[in-house]
Amino acid sequence: MKKKVGIIGGMGPAATLNFFKMVIKYTDAKFDQEHVNMIIDNNTSIEDRSAFIFKKGPNPKKELISTAKKLENYGAEIIAMPCNTAHFFYEEIKESINIPIINMIEAAANYILKEKKDKNIILLSTEGTYKSKIYEKVFERKDLNLIIPSEDHQKKIMDLIYKVKKNENIDYQKVNDILKQIEVPDGIFLLGCTELPIIFTNKDITEEYIDTVEILAKKVIQEAGYRLKNIK
Q1: Spatial distance between the Cα atoms of 133 and 183, rounded to a whole number of angstroms
Q2: Rg for the chain (alpha carbons), in Å?
Q3: Which three-class secondary structure state does DSSP give residue 84?
Q4: Which H or E element spans position 120?
Q5: What pTM, to 2 d.p., does this model score?
Q6: Sign of CA dihedral 150, 90, 66, 75
Q7: Distance between CA atoms of 25 and 19, rounded to whole angstroms?
């Protein structure tokens, strides 16, 4: 039974677009009617999640819940939220609606548990995600080894994320330099912010990584009852 999917988007718009492209890419469809039926609310009115977590901005919870309810009223039967930091509000959003909402953090952890359990997982994310410890809580419960970069490197990663949000040019040599500074033995980078895959898909980035947007896209396809394309 196929389900209509609602997407809480706009965090940010480029990340939402990339997520949509991922769903299309990994859906095994031969014509339009075999693609995932999605309602995307590119709600750029949702306040900055990291700013709130650091007590420097308004609470985005009301807008997140309003968007989720709107999607449910429009006929969505399952919801996804392609923003890692917004999962700080996951439980409150979940309790406000009557349909399931996929947990991106849990999906990433389950993938790693199955495919990369013995790796040292180096988390790259917003400062809000680091401070909220939403990844630490899930990974500790699943006995996964999570590496958190220094505060100095966290700020450098945050700068890269906001360059994507502002649609600015990326210095890929600088990105590689940052990654070299924080890599560890048997390590693999976890892209815990939906802007980061837009950077990492560039051919100049050579480090191995796990893409949480790809994981979420595949989870959406499967949970909505569509066929997953096998792409190697």
Answers
A1: 20
A2: 17
A3: coil
A4: strand 120-124
A5: 0.96
A6: positive
A7: 10
Buried b (16+ CB within 10 A) or exposed e, 170-190: eeeeebeebbeebeeeebbbb
Catalytic hit among 53, 68, 80, 83: 83
Per-residue pLDDT of the chain (232 residues; tens, 9 = 90+): 899 999 999 999 999 999 999 999 999 999 999 999 999 999 999 999 999 999 999 999 999 999 999 999 999 999 999 999 999 999 999 999 999 999 999 999 999 999 999 999 999 999 999 999 999 999 999 999 999 999 999 999 999 999 999 999 999 999 999 999 999 999 999 999 999 999 999 999 989 999 999 999 999 999 999 999 988 6
Catalytic site includes residue 83? yes
The one catalytic residue among 193, 196, 210, 213 = 193
Distance CA 208, CA 190 (A): 9
Q: Which two tokens stand for residue 50?
A: 């990291």
Q: How far is CA 68 from the centre of its chain?
A: 17
Q: Where do we find the tokens 């895959």?
A: 197
Residue at token pair 């050579």: 206
Largest pairwise CA distance in the chain? 48
Q: Compute CA 228 distance to the chain's CA centroid, rounded to the nearest angstrom.
A: 19
148: closest CA among 131, 173, 163, 167? 131
Reduced to 3 states (helix: H, G, I; strand: E, B; else coil), residue 132 is helix
Please state whether 207 falls in left (phi above 0), alpha (psi between -120 and 50) or beta: beta
Question: Identity (one letter) of the amino acid at 48?
Answer: D
Domains of the chain (ranges, CATH numbers)? 5-103+215-224 (3.40.50.1860), 105-211 (3.40.50.1860)
